[in-house]
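WARN no homologs supplied; continuing
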Amino acid sequence: MGEVLVDGETIKYDDDYSFKDYTGRPCKGKLSGKIIYASCFSHEEPNSKVFPNNMTGATFVNCNLDNCFIPNGNNVIGGSQRKFKVQNDLRDWELDGSDKPTRVMGEKFYIQQGISVDPKDISTTKLKDIDEIKKVEAV
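OK structure emitted
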């Protein structure tokens, strides 16, 4: 069992699940009642079912939980819980509570390039190749 100071409080975390990379794969371990520190559980699809449905009492501290569904009865302290999805313009967009795109990830870069960051400008059809992307960028 390791220890870390978080917001002035010493937290004892579970070594088996802390500092691990579960990116893109489910975590089927027995996490109920465990404290998990600085692990990555990020997935590509919003609301991904990464954890067992019956998991309760788990606490995630400074973990990357992007696009992960966290069952009720568990806690999240710090870290990241963004919802995002690749849209028809082939860019990752952050989503609101109803899974509608609200903000392109890397917004500053696109603004500097003069490329629209307005979700209304997302193509209604999926771009397929670099030539189509260049046409969109030219608008």
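The radius of gyration is 18 Å.
OK
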